[in-house]
Each structure stands twice: as structure tokens, then as C-alpha cells.
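Example 3.2
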Amino acid sequence: MDYEHIKKQDKDIYEALEGEERREAEGLELIPSENYVSKAVREANGSVLTNKYSEGYPGKRYYGGQTYTDMVETVAIDRAKKLFNCKYANVQTLGGANANIAMYFALLEPGDTVLGMDLSHGGHLTHGHPVTYLTKIFRFVRYKMKDADTGEIDYDEMLEVAKREKPKIILAGYSAYPRELDYAKFVDIAREVGAYCVMDIAHIAGLIAGKAAKSPFDYGFDVMTSTTHKTLRGPRGGLILTRESDDIGKKIDKTVFPGLQGGPHMNNIAAKAVAFGEALQPSFSKYAKQIIKNAAAMAEVFKNNDIRMLTGGTSNHLILADVFGSLSLGGQEAETLLDRVGITLNKNSIADDTRKPMDPSGIRFGTPAITTRGFGEKESARVAELMVTAMKDKDDEKKLSAIREEIRAMCKKFPIPESFA
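Structure, written as C-alpha cells:
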């Protein structure tokens, strides 16, 4: 991207931006929550709309001069509703965590109970981890996998917990769970105890939009929260979707503004609109399906090398591998090692991990970004082979150097695209 004005005005920031451009171009991004956006999305995010305050919603703003901001937000809302086949969409939330917080405050009263997935079994911090301030306001109880090697969730136990704890929300969704959930069972349990059924689709929003994964709305979920980056391949931001309830939709809008946020970031909403438009193209469905194929190809390599994967593999875009149990390699060491050879991923705790969160037993990686670059199953499998070789031969500098050069060559062959239209 052209940084000519920053280059003239601010050398420090210019050097950082140029460095990041180079890092992304010359290395492979495997963090499942990261992706590459089009230049059109980047242009919208850096547009003149960053100047404008637009408190309120289209047609109901507190400041004047809203002709074009109303146009932008209306387009973003309409495209989001079409993508996810729902009645309401709030595009103002600033991130996935913000979307979850707004959802809680819209549907709950202080002291109400939420039943969500345990963080160590794949859940997210905002699903009730004790470190968050949400736990000072609401009461969280958790469910886990019945078997970490298959990913099976004990829905009978979930029903027993729901009957005993009487949650007002039953929350599905995850940040490190490589399988699909049984949405029908979530809805059945929620209906039996009179709870809202909510899904945090942040990680798989693009898979749902691209018809590569099932939509919870088709099974009767009330609300879905999401980020707009990750598999959806948009700018960093949040999204809240309501299937059909007027009451829930109005509560969410009121909670986001004026309840929790002031003026929305209209430049970011414009970038969301552009990304939603890209996701509505037929090519996006092909992309979403390829993400899953590529992840399966990588999982097969890990399986053939006897590296334990949580849930036994993957049905979506990500893989969670127990590198400490399989290779006696801590998650932090693996992350640092692979970063050296041009492969970026993240350390990650595994189910009931006995190691510390900053040096856990696992690594988490996925295929959204390399699929954006045009990788297919063959290339994805080769990346997995290089990862395994690097981790097994971590002290062989000659091998590590050769891997780094091969990664650079792959990056040149598959440059980051500028457009997806």
C-alpha cells in the first residue's frame, strides 16, 4: 500500500508499516484468527469517513451531515442480513469481545447465569473466564468436551447442568475447537430450560457465509455474535445478528448505542460493507470450502507423523496439536521456532493443560490466510511437512535454513492478492 505521506511525516511509523508489509509478504500466516484483506477493504478502512461522528443509527443520528454515513451503514446492514439470512444486524460493535459484551447486556440482568464452553476446551475469554470483568456481573457455568481425543461433547450432562443452574443464555461457539457442534441439541436444551440460544461464530463466520459450514440460525438459534475478520476476511471489527425477534433486535441496538458505545467508527463500517460484498460473490463459497480442505490436508500430515491433535483432527479451519505430549516441545518454543522459519502460528493451551498459559502444551494453526494466497491441499500438506520437520529437527540449523528458503519461495509463488472481486 502507498504510504507516501507517512513516509514524509513520520519515519518511525513508516518503518513499522513497511516492516509489517515485508513480514506478511515473505512469511506464511497460520494463526486461525488472521487473514489478508483486499486493498478495497484497506482503502475503506483508511477513508475520509474516519473524520465523521455518527452517533445513532441510519435515519436517527444525533449530529448533522449524515447523508453518506447513513448510506454506508445501511449497505453494511443489508449485506450482513443477506449473508447470514437473518432479520437484524448491528454492524457498529468494535470487535468480537465487544459484540459478546453487548449481547450479554441486551439479554441479561446482573446476576443472571450463562452456560458456555470452558476456555481450556476451546471456548473464549468472553465466554466466562474468571480473568474477565464479565464474571463480576454475570454468573458463568461451563461445559467441556467429554472426550478430548474425539471432540465429543456430553449433551446429556449439558442438559443436567442447564436444569440445575437455570442459565438465561446457552452459549455455543469457540476459539480453539476444530469440530462442528450439534446445533439442534443446543436449541433443544435451551428451549427446555427457557434460555436464549446464542452462538459466537467469530471463527467460522466466513465458513457459514460461504455455505461451507452449517448455520446455527437454520436450527433455531436466537442470536449470533461475530468478528468481521478471520474467515470472513474483513476488517477487524464486530457484528451481532438476530434471527427474527423484533424485541431482541431492538434490545441489541439500544445496548450497543447508547448503552456501551458512542460514535461508531464509520470508516470501519465501510470496510465491513466492502468485505460483506466480497463474501456475497460466488467465488467466496469456493474459498470457504477450500479452507476446510486445506486444513484436512494439514491434519493428515500431523496424523501420519503421530502428532496428537485435539479432537483427532479437524472439521473446520483450525488444528490444535499437542506438541509437548508428542514431541516434548513446549508451545512457546514451537511458536518461536516456527516463526524463525517464516511460519506464524500461536501457542495454545489444550484441554485441562497442566502447563502455564504462556508456555502451554499446544499450538493452534489454521488455513484461512494461506487459502487466500491460493494454496490448495498439496501446498498446505507441504507446509505441514515443513512444520513437522522443523519441530523434530529443531537443533539442525542447516535444515531450518533450508525450510526458511522454501517458505520464501512459496510466498513468491503465491503472493498476497490485492483483490477478490
